[in-house]
């Protein structure tokens, strides 16, 4: 897929918000490409192209990391939610169960450092409806998982 930005206009902040079907996220999401006054750098578009090439390879790595993150935080989450824990942060045994607790919303391409191939992934999640879930992929490895704000720090 070659991104033709001429079909889109940046928002008031210079950011392109492009409807995008992600194989990795198994959903229609927004591809978010920040720009300087509407000018997207070639290296940003190259990262989009590489992301498209690597999406299928990243599926297992991404969801394994998410599953581990959820399992490690689960005791604290369940204690926090008390009687609502089974609904908000249920005990799960498999990655497919985790997918029902998260909703992919976006893919954010970095704007700061062309030497790193960095992509942020955005999700809504049952256990953190206010702050969501963010994942940073750097050089195609899951580097960090946290709140959605994390995915915009690229």
From TrEMBL:
DUF6985 domain: residues covered: 23-151
Pfam families attached to this UniProt entry: DUF6985 (PF22481)
InterPro entries registered for this protein in UniProt: DUF6985
Domain of life from the UniProt record: Bacteria
Protein name: DUF6985 domain-containing protein
Provenance organism: Photobacterium aphoticum
